[in-house]
Amino acid sequence: MSVLVAVTGWDVAHWVERFQRLLPGRTVVALGGDYDPASIHYAVSWKHPAGSLSQLPNLKAIFSLGAGVDHLLNDPHLPDVPVTRVVDADLTARMSEYVVMHALMVLRQQRRYQKQQAQTLWLDDRDQPAAQDVRVGVMGLGVLGRDALHKLKVMGFSVSGWSRSAHHIDGVTCFSGEDGLKPFLAQTDILVVLLPLTPDTKGMINKDVLKGLAQDGALQKPVLINAGRGGLQNEVDILACLEDGSLGEAILDVFETEPLPAASPLWTHPCVVVSPHNAAMSAPDAIGQLVARQIGRMEQGQPLLHLVEMKRGY
Fold this sequence. Notes:
Blueprint: E1 2-7, H1 12-22, E2 27-30, E3 40-46, E4 61-64, H2 70-73, E5 83-84, H3 89-107, H4 110-118, E6 135-139, H5 143-154, E7 158-163, E8 173-176, H6 177-186, E9 190-193, H7 207-211, E10 223-226, H8 235-244, E11 249-252, E12 272-274, H9 284-299
Parallel strand pairs: 1-2, 1-3, 3-4, 4-5, 6-7, 6-9, 7-8, 9-10, 10-11, 11-12
Helix pairs in contact: 1-9, 3-5
């Protein structure tokens, strides 16, 4: 049984070596190499070229090397086999670190103080809101969203969540569906976006959503944090809302085009924070070990973990 490493944008040789070490006794090959397509039983993918997995007659499963699977949904010729995604404690913890870090920096006005330091200004402003007075709303109530909500709550923030389908989380006010979106936004000071990218969520973070955020909160102007997927946001609308004052700040780890083009006004806008899609960079060995365990489970007749419902996109 052979394993095919089908990745672009990463060091393929290192991933082949990693899986060869984790899966002794199996042949691990790279896409484009010299191998018999009929020998491939498993494929591990990150942004594989569309159609490149369609000629593997004995393929049993595809393992995404990321938490999201929109890169797989983009392949119209994807084989009809089980698909799994990464659910990893290390990745989850890193995402929550990113969310909590930026929520605290917004709360404590750290970026304003950095600007004052650069100007050698000592402005002892005592008008500092408490965490309990700042309402953080998380869009997306999967593993990442739930962990972020828990840790934000520990820090004292008032928290709520929204998802397309109904959820119940102890200590969290949950909203769902189209009917729940407007009331959720209206009581949100910091919007955290951790949704999967699907046809239903593409471009969802637009003017209507941003202008629906609370305009009367302790922060004076609402803040956007998107660490989900770049395809969720409309960057023209984000910039327009920053300019008209309906949005106070945008903290973006993901973008419609990645890498973010040098000409993008997001780079230099004074109210935008850019990070290079590294909010939750899980350790490659942890991902490799998870895939190796999944292959072991399948060969032992056990159900795969973290299966993706391809029609839903997550």
